[in-house]
Write a structure and sequence with these properties.
With 199 residues, this protein is an all-alpha fold. It has a single domain, classed as Tetracycline Repressor, domain 2 (Orthogonal Bundle). It has 9 helices and no strands. Helix 1 packs across helix 2 (33-40), helix 1 (2-26) packs across helix 4 (54-80) and helix 5 (83-100) runs parallel beside helix 8.
Length: 199
């Protein structure tokens, strides 16, 4: 019985990962329940029974994406870098991931903020909360760097963390239009200069 439960949990995670990729590639409106069922390898009835409707599955997919992408990156960078370097590494990684994605899918959270949130207040609040986690990462590390004397005292962690979030969002959006490395690094450069680092 325990083995069956483990198998079901594994299959469910794999199915949600497939749903994430489907929504990420085609967007919420461009993804049908049939598309999702096919990508997840389950029937339409099984999809509804296991995950609810398309909107409920989208919310689960956002949570999965946030956990395996944004939260994983934040935890890894905070564990492996000093505060200022963690911020710079985050921005660098966003540039690199954007350039290495052949489909130019961007970020599912940013895409959803643009495409879904204006028409769905509840999803909008969910997406905003995830973006606040990124802002919180920037704010924590800015404050820690300032306390450690690595950052100018006049830099305000609240306003600069919002600025950095805007920079990351801008990089993701520009990358979807086909922007190259030079343009993305030009966007990142002034933000990194605030940290005392130029590219």
């Amino acid at each position: 019985m325990l083995a069956m439960a483990r198998l079901k949990a594994f299959d469910e995670e794999r199915a949600i990962d497939a749903a994430v990729d489907c929504f990420w590639m085609h967007g919420y409106e461009g993804t049908s329940v049939r598309d999702l069922a096919e990508a997840m390898g389950i029937g339409g009835a099984s999809l509804y029974n296991a995950f609810g409707d398309k909107r409920a599955l989208f919310a689960r997919s956002l949570e999965r994406y946030a956990a395996r992408s944004m939260r994983e990156r934040i935890a890894r960078l905070e564990a492996g870098h000093r505060p200022k370097e963690a911020i710079a590494a985050f921005v660098d990684e966003i540039v690199e991931r954007s350039l290495k994605d052949p489909d130019r899918k961007g970020c599912l959270l940013i895409n959803s903020a643009l495409d879904v949130a204006p028409h769905d207040a509840e999803i909008g609040r969910v997406v905003s909360a995830y973006l606040d986690e990124i802002r919180g990462f920037f704010r924590r590390n800015l404050e820690a760097a300032r306390q450690a004397g690595q950052l100018a005292k006049q830099i305000d962690p609240d306003s600069v963390s919002s600025h950095l979030l805007g920079v990351v969002a801008g990089i993701r959006v520009l990358a979807r239009t086909g922007a190259g490395r030079q343009q993305l690094e030009d966007v990142a450069r002034p933000a990194l200069a605030l940290l005392g680092r130029a590219r």
